[in-house]
Amino acid sequence: MILTEILDAAAISYQTSKTKGDEVTFDCPFCTLRGLTADTKQKFGLNVKNGLGHCFRCNWASRSLLNTARCLAKVYGLEAELTRLNIHPVRRPKPVEKSEEPKVKPPGLPEGYEAFSDSTDPIERAAKGYLYGRGVSILQIVRHKIGYAAVGPMAWRVLFPVFDEKGRIFGCVGRAIVPDMEPKYLNSSGCKLLWNAHREGQLAVVCEGIMDALRVEKALLQGRDAVAIARLGSTITPTQISQLRKYEKVIVLPDLDVPGAKGAGSMAERCAAAGIIVSVAVPEEMNGKDPGSMSESEIFDYIRSAQPWSRSTGRRLRAAAVKERAVF
């Protein structure tokens, strides 16, 4: 085949699927061209028969045999081989100068954001009391730039900034510190990203809410390569899926209720479809608890119980919900 001839000529090591003989995987040659580190985990999947190729790290993709052959030959310095394989280089048109696209300006911190100090302000004291009561440490407050608001649309809320990969603030999540204040959580404009996914690591433990992630983070302090992440709700967006691609493995910790199990199943299915190695902690019972209300030992046990995502894992999630007489 044309594509295997190119790979063999470039001395590229690839693995052939045991179930689908036309599909191979190898280290993606395009990751470094797209600004990422070199791929060493064979994230590039290729059908050598029809030319469909896709990298699950840099998202490079090709939909035709000829285009894939040309691109691989070029990146491996084998363009001269194209003639021998009866494939001719594409005559590329002269590049057309494009006007520079406007840069997206991060919205930054919302109106009224205040950093914690030693003030005797009653709102600051109430905000501190809420955080300490939920087990959030001073180190976490400083590390995540957690603040509060006394005025503005976020008044009487603890504020959790959301950062992008470059460390820029793309809004805040505000948690009410006044009883019966609605809504309990309020997102400022721009909060479309995962909370804390700008941090590097090998393992991402994904929870629904920020308080859950902060609790998990304390339990994982000894794990240098583990990052606790909040998806800020029961659903997940394509942008958030893209943020998870850099982690070698993802573990989903759902809240112990039916919506939590349903959201975890949907998220795991979408991660797996995107080529992300994902596991899910299947609740033994639906008692309404969430990771934010668990002890550190319970969190460790919950994480250890995570099962690789598969159809059977999905069935176990649904079975856990059925036990509570809830069907989704």
The first-to-last residue Cα distance is 46 Å
- Sketch the topology as an H/E string, one letter per element: HEEEEEHHEHHEEEEEHEHEHEHEH
Structural class: alpha+beta
The tally of structural domains comes to: 3
The number of helices is: 10
Could you tell me the number of beta strands? 15
Low-confidence stretches: 98-102
Q: Please give the CATH architecture of the largest domain.
A: 3-Layer(aba) Sandwich
The CATH class name of the largest domain reads Alpha Beta
Whole-angstrom Rg: 24 Å
Shape: elongated
Largest sheet: 5 strands, antiparallel
> Per DSSP, what share of the residues sits in E-state strands of 2 or more residues?
15-25%
Average residue-wise pLDDT: 85
Helical fraction: 25-40%
Major sheet strand order: 1-2-3-4-5
CATH fold title of the largest domain: Dna Topoisomerase Vi A Subunit, Chain: A, domain 2
What does this structure look like?
The protein has 328 residues and is of the alpha+beta class. It is built from 10 helices and 15 strands.
In short:
Helices cover 29% and strands 18% of the residues.
SSE topology sketch:
Layout: H1 2-9, E1 15-16, E2 23-26, E3 44-47, E4 53-55, E5 61-62, H2 65-75, H3 81-84, E6 113-115, H4 122-133, H5 138-143, E7 147-149, E8 157-163, E9 169-176, E10 185-187, E11 203-207, H6 210-219, E12 226-230, H7 238-243, E13 249-252, H8 258-273, E14 278-280, H9 296-304, E15 307-308, H10 311-322
Parallel strand pairs: 11-12, 11-13, 13-14
Antiparallel strand pairs: 1-2, 2-3, 3-4, 4-5, 6-7, 7-8, 8-9, 9-10, 14-15
Helix pairs in contact: 1-2, 6-9, 8-10
